[in-house]
Hints:
- It is a single chain.
- 80% of the residues lie in helices and 0% in strands.
- The protein is mostly helical and 411 residues long.
- It has a single domain, classed as Growth Hormone, Chain: A.
- Helix 4 packs parallel to helix 6 (99-123) and helix 4 (54-65) packs antiparallel against helix 15.
- The radius of gyration is 20 Å and the shape is globular.
Amino acid sequence: MTARRDFGLLWAGQSMSLFGDHFMTLALPLLAVTVLGASPAQAALLPFALFLPFLPLGLPAGAIVDRLPRRTVMLAGDGVQMVVFGAIWVTAVTGVLSFPLLFGLVLVSGCALVFFQVAYTSYLPGLFHDPDELHGGNVRLALSESTAKAVGPVVAGPVIGVLGVAGALVANTLSFAASLVTLVMIRHREPPPAALVRERGWVRRDIATGLRFVAGHPVLEPVLACGTVYVLFLSMVETSLVLYCRNVLGLSPLWIGVVVGSAAAGYPIGNLASAALMRRLGSSRALILSATVSVLGIVAMPVLGAPGTLGAVGLIVGSVVHCVGEGAFSPTSLTLRQTQTPPELLGRVSAVQRFLLWGAVALGSLLAAAVTALGGLQAAVWTGALGTILCLPALLRRGIRTPRRPALTLG
């Protein structure tokens, strides 16, 4: 019962935090363009700032988190992000905020996000030792993220329309405060990490151990390679989408929120289908099917999208299909990683995953900014959509075609 209560607190806190995060999907680029007078290419650099820290900090964070209580790391990460977004709000309403300052604050938030995410994705196996319960927890957390993606931008549109971007900034700040409170209320305490001597070079050696494990694993390596390629090009589409809707399709903030939010309606379908797919096909084949569906949906987005209401409907249809695939892929790959990784390596393997995937978001955002500057928003969307096809050959290698079900007992 204690584990379920603590998971309920974790789930509630992260649901509120994720909801606030997706206010930022709409608010940050609009804040940069409408309040600070930034160009679309500059606005595309904000996601780059948020995810850039995963490149230098992602791997060291895994080594550090494996030697610290993960709940403590999560508390620190939430606290820093609450302060950062509160500072963005204060400087925006007082007229002090500039684009370089906004970029720097988002960069600080990204540093905190690195450690939070590595600890967060390594924490759940300590609560649930049964693989089925673990996957159930992962599905619930994925459903919260899906709901936030669907509802957050839809609600953010009217909030921004009535209160301006300051309203969205306040909502995100309060969501981090709520998450912080729920983490404080969790009773579960992890066993103290093994007392390891921190001799010179320990971070480098711990990182190397995690990298060798992932590189040598017949399933985790192709899954992570697929995810990295996929996220690199998908981030180009997502970085460009808000301003693509505004500048190319001519949609208002209200309708941009509807397009971005309703397009995410496919995520819960995929989340709920993931357990059935794992039981019927095994995790490996479920991942192949999910990735294929997702890529087909992304490619359909620029194909069906066109100026006007009809283009908005086309974007929604393509994105719903892609979100069904991604919604099934995400919890399946997470459960597979957690059940195939020894507990003492969970932080480092999670760090490798975050380093690759979230680092790819930073590079994809930078690539989107470059393509937007050279060829416009349409070129960025088309390049990103077609590039996601490359994730499929990255996945179909090594042991991925072997039927595989979670078989390891955690603990």
